[in-house]
Amino acid sequence: MWWGTLGTVRPFPNFGPEEDAREIYTALEKKGADVNTLVRILTNRNNVQRQCIADAFETIAKKELKLALKKALSGALEDLLLALLMTPSQFDAHRLRQSMEGLGTDEEGLLEVLCTRTPKQLSDITVAYNQEFGRNLEKDLISETSKDFTKLVLAILKKEELNIKGVIDYQLIDQDVKALLGGVNVKKTDPTPWIQILTSRSPGHLSRVFTKLEGLKGEPVERTVQNNFSGDLRLGLRILVQTIQSTPMYLAQRLQNNMKKIAIVRGILVARSEEDMLCVRREYRRLTNTSLYSTIQNEFKGEMQQALLALCRSEDL
Fold first, then answer.
1. What do the Gene Ontology cellular component annotations say (predicted)?
2. CB 42 within 8 A of CB 6
3. Is residue 113 a part of any domain in this protein?
């Protein structure tokens, strides 16, 4: 972490977009494509630099880089390199759409994106979703979810930026704890205060609320959710609680449970590579007593392994 960022992908020094674009053009023109060159460049430039490369490539080749990659590649590696060419909001918009397409909705896929993004990021994702698909994200979420789970995902989507660092309102903490207890200390649980409070308070405030609630209930907040709610709502509240407590820990657990699912591994590594992948790696090590880097080496082969390792960046001893 000494270089001042919690991400593993940083701006490439002495960056030259035209030079990179020409090298990629040459790699794509070769018979069979020089995949090593494509992976080396695209995983070693940050997102802003990759956008510059795409613009320079279009000027040089008179065609879009993403179309050239689609023509030259296939499968999981194609998906990963195309993901790297999207802006963060475009990538998240595509992940949300994929979670809602086909038979059945991937609720945890939706929740991973919604619960781990800031209000500003969610606003950008909403705009990108409309631009990419010509669809309204809120309407799609309503059509793909139901009842209280719909209320929860919409509340997460619409949460506002809170900036009350250093301000501790002990009276509000007590009020929130009382409201949360009221929602579960009845014959028919009421999720309304849980949805309202968990999506309208700062993480620092909620941390104090959770500590007090756990003291009164004698169990972790996650257990309280597990014991009092059911179905998709229980899943949603559980993941929301986990991400409020520690997004890196939640993502490390998701990786641990889904290492065989390339879409999930790719999604987390691409999305977090410039944000907090060092923290995710640390929590993964604590959780599994194995480094994420070594796990990727064991689970993947060839060019896909090379690309994922480049995003993970290094071993944790």
1. cytoplasm; nucleus; plasma membrane; vesicle membrane
2. no
3. yes
Inform me whether the pLDDT recorded for 160 exceeds 70. Answer: yes
* pLDDT attached to residue 163: 53
Residue pLDDT, tens place only, 88-126: 999 999 999 999 997 889 999 999 999 999 999 999 999
Residue bearing tokens 């997102």: 47
Strands (E), 79-230: none
In a domain, 59, yes or no: yes
Host domain of residue 300? 248-312
The answer to the question of residue 1 being in a domain is: no
Cβ–Cβ under 8 Å, residues 316 and 13: no
CA distance 108 to 51: 29
Report CA torsion sign: 171, 173, 178, 179: positive
Distance from C-alpha of 293 to C-alpha of 114, rounded to nearest angstrom? 26
Are the C-beta atoms of 60 and 17 separated by less than 8 Å? no
| pTM of model > 0.70 | yes
- C-beta separation of 202 from 164 below 8 A: yes
What is the domain-level CATH number for residue 290? 1.10.220.10
